[in-house]
Amino acid sequence: MVNFKKARERMVQSQLAARGVHDERVLEAMLKVPRHLFVDEALRDQAYSDHPLPIAEKQTISQPYIVALMTESLKLKGTEKVLEIGTGSGYQSAILAELAGRVFSIERYPELGYRANSILRKLGYKNFIIRVGDGSLGWPDDAPFDGIIVTAGTPQIPQPLIDQLSMGGRLVVPVGDRLAQDLFLIRREAEGIEKTNLGAVRFVNLVGKWGWKE
Ligand code: SAH
After folding, report:
1. Using the 8-state DSSP alphabet, how is residue 128 labeled?
2. DSSP state letters, 58-74
3. pTM across the whole model
């Protein structure tokens, strides 16, 4: 039987802090959220390993380091309204719920959305809402967002997501081909849009109007 708390401490030290994740709030959140509850029971022993893991519908829960890197780049202070595209297991949503004011998350597979919703509720989170649909269109009803995180790879940055960023808002999104992408940080400033490449990543496909075709 794995000691999950110890496994989390080791993960935060060796995979996150050692690789340059310094935001104390991000490290605290990743120390706290029980990642093993978001994966299949058969995979729990691997929940804190340094790689992604399969979840239902042929999707994946991202590697812990990638979750930390993307979250840190949003520079959350605690009051922000954040949008996540690709709820998947709900793990990233829980991390965001720890760090932001309100979290909106969209998933295209109903089963994943329902499952994530029930785990987050059980863990006591109240500042989140999960919707089933095409997240490449964003969430216009509740826009603008201070942070937007896309956890699936897309051939182009969906324009609706840029349009739904607040002034000073930040968007992290993997852009590239179906098998490999670069992670981009987009900042909306008064002078225009600033774009930074955070490095190579590998995500499952964003499927939707502004993503890949089925
Ligand atoms: N953030 C997730 C990662 C899940 S993998 C986690 O922490 O587990 C990416 C997810 O994006 C998959 O569940 C996939 O079904 C979903 N997805 C792909 N295209 C989508 C779209 N257009 N809208 C909403 N979700 C989408």
Report:
1. E
2. T-EEPPHHHHHHHHHTT
3. 0.98
